[in-house]
Amino acid sequence: MTTSSDLVVQTDRLSKVFRVGFWGKKVTAVDGLSLEVRRGEVFGFLGPNGAGKTTTLKILMGLIYSTSGSAKLFGRDLGDPQSKARLGFLPESPYFYDYLTSREFLRFYGHLFGLWGAALDQRIDELLELVGMTPAKDLQLRKFSKGMLQRVGIAQALINDPELVVLDEPMSGLDPIGRKEVRDLILRLKESGKTVMFSSHILHDAEVLCDRVAMILKGRLVACGSVNDLLDQGASHQVELVVDRLTQEGLGHLRPLTDKVVQQGDRMLVVLKNQQQVSAALEIIRSAKASLVSLNPQKGSLEELFIREVEGHRSPSEQRP
Fold first, then answer.
1. How much is the pLDDT for 135?
2. Is-above-0.90 flag for pTM?
């Protein structure tokens, strides 16, 4: 059972409406969003570009105000300075003073939190070691790659030793090596007891990292729960069999149960339509005196669930022909 003290982030029917253009047309960026982030978890906030992820995070950070609804950090109102002191944040496209070195950059942000002297220097050394940037501690930020900037940006978000770390699209624009480095950092933060909330449109990263995820489309929450539960919802439930030396007669009996058969020499890949057909397929294989090499249930993916949700929420005018 989740108690109020276990909740780090809460939103209740949160909405944000912008007025754009000469006529002030109303555009709803966040629409009645209610979600909770629990202490000690990695929470993925997922959706396509323009879904309302960044707007929601800006509201939580106090950078903009909501139109309606409410939100809390650590059970406190968003304007409470005590909640801000327990928070670390890295925006999607941060601007850093690129003439500073890593140490100078982190010292500047440490001063903003009232940290000085030897304690701050020790904290900077610890963070540079954590994010793997010690060799670049005296290098100007203008000479950093995108992945290096993301890592030093995460170090900035940790300078005050926060309980909650919020990262907006931390893997966006990174190459595979940079994405792995950031993923490893997030896992280290979880191991150290931090709560991590990050937004992303890269669903594979969320599968690897997250305890729970929330999916939003057009500002509305369409799915929320543990990754395993959501994967079960999105699973196709197909099963792949690799069979050796199956006769044509045996294949004829097996084919009505399959979606696909791929043959390579004496071995073939057989894809069953669903898991309920496994027993019947195995009986056919035994009767044909063939050998079962492997049996692999097909795991669902967040991408599969996401595509299904997108298709389900299309308006009639948006439906594919």
1. 95
2. no
